[in-house]
Amino acid sequence: MLEINNLTVQIEDNRILNGLSLKVADGEVAAIMGPNGSGKSTLSYVIAGKEDYEVLDGEILLDGQNLLEMEADERAAAGVFLAFQYPLEIPGVGTMTFLKAALNAQRRARGEDELTTPDLIKRVNAAGETLEIKKDFLKRALNVGFSGGEKKRMEILQMALLEPKFCILDETDSGLDIDALRIVSEGVNTLRSKDRSFLVITHYQRLLNHIVPDTVHVMANGRIVKSGGKELALELEANGYADYRQEAA
Amino acid sequence: MTEVTQIRTAAETGLGDLFDRLKGGLPGDVAIREAALAGFRERGLPHRRVEEFKYFDLRALMREAAPPAERPNATEIAKAFNQAKAFASVPAYRLTFVNGHLAASLKEAESFPSGIEVVPFEQALGEGHPLLASLGRVEVAQGNPILELNTAFMNDGAVIRVAAGATPDQPIALRFVSAGETAFSTATRVLVVVEAGAKVTLIESHEGPDGLANQTNTAVEFVVGDGASVDHVRFNGEGADVLSLSTITATLGADVSFSTHNALIGSAAARHQVFLACKGENSTVRIDGISLLRGRQHADATLVVDHAVPHCTSRETFKTILDGETTGVFQGKIVVRPHAQKTDGGMKSDALLLSERASMNNKPELEIFADDVVCGHGATCGALDDELLFYLKSRGLPKAEAESLLLQAFVGPPIEAIEHEGVRDALVGRVEEWLAARR
């Protein structure tokens, strides 16, 4: 279970998160919606361990472990995964090389045996099939020359391989066409389990038709201002964020 | 008018005295040596006020002249052989030089296939070997102080002839290793004549122990006939205290494919120079280099490509990683002569600085006298991308491992361009060792 208490974060004297609290139970899919600039992406980066942010107050606990005391790679090994809004291209680093390095680094950190190349290939191929990723993509440099949709599918492939406990999807639907949205959502849905929870960050209710959330939270001005069930997303879609902007101000 | 008296450094005085003492015993025509030393006698060692040496002040770097290496004895040879590890995994026709001297009296060369002829340089000089006429003929290399010092002092090396049409099944490997207790200097010269239509890979490694402040000066000169193909890969894994000076020259005929790659990890200070002249049409040239620097290393890559005829293509790709308090230098010049139309030249130097105290000097130059050419150059200096590092860390890679992956990717392209798989893999191994030592 992920528990965020009173998280207060700034970047270069700009307060972005303002005493944010949130709980996501094991197996729960929590959606976070909110207007531009409400701090959604910052929240995802702070959970994953990006260094640019100054945490002034609060804590983030994953199964009782304080993530804020860990490096990004240690958080990954502890089970945190962030699917980036804009996955990065890494010229010169082969996709398979990268996947193997990542997977084995996490296994080493957890004291598990490293995976052999044939084992890895088997797992990658299996995951790649669900996500309709062409095999020759895996031979290319990571994300280089991939379309927006292909990059997002590669993020979900990594998620499937790394088997995290807590997954953050940061606007995974942005830049996806209808087919890609379906494929990515199916990829996520197959990973849903009672031990794994998700934080789905999105602007649009559309994604939540495919990945149906258990809870929906509205974020404005750096904190959660309303929480509810999946019907809250529909309400937002109909009425917009105007009420919450005012409420927060 | 006041008399200007030039003040000589200890190294300069030492080199002059050394030459006077040695010249009677050096093989071949002493007049050639005297002529080569004239520039040094007049100007001394090149220093930072000499444009080509602005970023590699040889006068400051060479404090004293180390005595020339004695011909090593059997024990030293045996000890040195064990140090030649760089390309040990590559099956090759090997020639080993210990402390600059061709070792084992050419026993190794007996296993060479027909089509490759090897003559010890000393012998070639002594008997006035006809191929030596092509030594030092690359115009853009003439007057170069490092090459001139080599010519003045050259005492050992080899003349290698690859016969017309020969395609040896393995690379020729020149292994330079050093051993001993006291610092020494070398002046080794290798002439490689690749006749028309031959295809050969030549690998060169320079290795030795830390703690010996040797001053090595090697020059490898290629004369490449029409339609021949030459791939040259050089590895500098010298000990951490060595002052390494090296020169490659190449004269290319028509329809030649020529590549030379310098991978540098070793030496305290190193200057690697390439002087290449396209003398026949439709030749393709690649000059590449990677330098991985740590501590207080200082490495200079200098090259001049002379497009003297039309329709030739040249590409230069240099990658430098600078850690600690290191200094990197890239100075590349592409010359396109008035009639060398349709020349296609492209030069690129990229540097990655891992430390605030490292510095890189890029100096690309184009001298174009023809009007129908495509030439370009580019240079970059930067640090590792924090966003990429975070992406990799967020996938579980610890910082050091993430950095290694990005650094490997950075130096990847010039290594991947090496055609010979075994040689390529060997260099990848050297890079991995360097990265592992960094963690």
UniProtKB/TrEMBL annotation, chain A:
Keywords assigned by UniProt, alphabetized: ATP-binding, Nucleotide-binding
GO molecular function, one term: ATP binding
Top-level division of the source organism's lineage: Bacteria
ABC transporter domain: residues covered: 2-246
One Pfam family hit: ABC_tran
CDD domains given in the database record: ABC_FeS_Assembly (cd03217)
InterPro entries for this protein: AAA+_ATPase, ABC_transporter-like_ATP-bd, ABC_transporter-like_CS, FeS-cluster_ATPase_SufC, P-loop_NTPase
PANTHER family xref list: ABC TRANSPORTER I FAMILY MEMBER 6, CHLOROPLASTIC (PTHR43204:SF1)
Family to which the UniProt record says this protein belongs: Belongs to the ABC transporter superfamily. Ycf16 family.
UniProt protein name: Fe-S cluster assembly ATP-binding protein
Species whose genome carries this gene: Enterovirga rhinocerotis
Source lineage: Bacteria, Pseudomonadati, Pseudomonadota, Alphaproteobacteria, Hyphomicrobiales
Automatic annotation (TrEMBL), chain B:
InterPro entries, alphabetized: Fe-S_cluster_assembly_SufBD (IPR055346), SUF_FeS_clus_asmbl_SufBD_core (IPR000825), SUF_FeS_clus_asmbl_SufBD_sf (IPR037284), SUF_FeS_clus_asmbl_SufD (IPR011542), SufBD_N (IPR045595)
A Pfam family assignment: SUFBD_core
Biological processes annotated in GO: iron-sulfur cluster assembly
Domain SUF system FeS cluster assembly SufBD N-terminal: residue ranges: 31-173
Ranges where the SUF system FeS cluster assembly SufBD core domain occurs: 184-410
Domain of life according to the entry: Bacteria
Family label: Belongs to the iron-sulfur cluster assembly SufBD family.
NCBIfam families, alphabetized: sufD
Protein name, UniProt field: Fe-S cluster assembly protein SufD
